[in-house]
Amino acid sequence: MFRTGMSWGERVVYWLVIFGLLVLLFLYRRATLPVAIFVNGNPVAWVSNQRLAHRAIELAREELRKQYGSDADFAETVEVGSLPIASGESLISPFEAAKILLARVSPVKWSWLIKLNDKVVAAVKSKEEAEQTLEMVKAHFTPTNAILVKPPYFKEKVDVQRGKFAATKIVTNAETVARRLIGGLEPQQYHVVKAGEVAIRIARRYGLTLQQLQQLNPNRDLDRLNIGDKLLIKRGRPLVTVVCVYQVVKQEPLPFKVERRFEPRLPGGALVTQRRGKEGLKEVTYEITAENLLEVQRKVVRERILREPVTEILLVGGGLR
């Protein structure tokens, strides 16, 4: 209760004193509370003061870096703050708190991330390894000895960026990552040619036509298979799509024309070949667009006649029989 006749100024001082005492009580209470170590907002261990809490975090980080390297860190957010001890818990040493903390966190490291449509699909140690990985994937889906119109490229959005990634999942070998991108959800299947095998029998064995087997192996002469040759018999489901635009030059026959000439000296209805026709020969350059070696478009970009065809001449009789 206020004293009768207390002035306005005295009342203000009175309440300020009360407020100050409450603040001091709060600070005292806070200073005497144990300190908890939080992982993503959840308390995991309690020590007696802030200094010991930070010491526990330092010990955990040191152990993490012994195992995974000097740039390793916690994937989770680790903080400290005053908090009453939870039921069943007790104050422990920084060393014990560090062990508990290590069991609750995951190690991450700086690495180079390979992203597919903004989603991380792999992580390697260096930018060079990441770029090497992508070049290996492109090379795998580029036809051998092809005349490239433009460098192969990915149909999807593929990026290489520096970022933190789970230390236990960083791959140290570019070839391993390349195989993962190529194999994807379902790896490709191959048949190794054995003695006495021919293309048509291999195709039938896997439920394919000879034409389908040729489409799967566009740069392979199926009439000249050797023991040990690898034939693709089933396409996989790679994580990426490599688009390759290249040219193929082929020689194709030119059909000859047939010219019929009326000959009154021949009996009616008679046909006599005066000159046999001969096929010509042309060189055709095709521009082919392929996705993961599967042809999706073909167009003629150039033709050149190597040998003109010879017209066949037939004499048609028009006289009396």
Write a concise synopsis of the structure shown.
This protein is an alpha+beta fold and 321 residues long. The chain is built from seven helices and 17 strands.
Structural notes for this entry:
This protein has seven helices and 17 strands. The protein has helices at residues 8-32, 50-68, 94-104, 127-140, 174-183, 199-205, 210-216; strands at 35-39, 42-47, 73-74, 78-82, 107-116, 119-124, 147-148, 153-154, 158-166, 189-192, 230-234, 242-254, 258-267, 271-275, 280-291, 294-307, 312-319. Helix 2 (50-68) crosses helix 3 (94-104) and helix 4 packs across helix 5 (174-183). 16% of the residues are buried. It is elongated. Strand 15 (280-291) and strand 16 form a beta hairpin. The protein has four domains: 29-105, no CATH class; 107-184, no CATH class; 189-234, Roll (Membrane-bound Lytic Murein Transglycosylase D, Chain A); 243-319, Resuscitation-promoting factor rpfb (Resuscitation-promoting factor rpfb fold, Single Sheet).
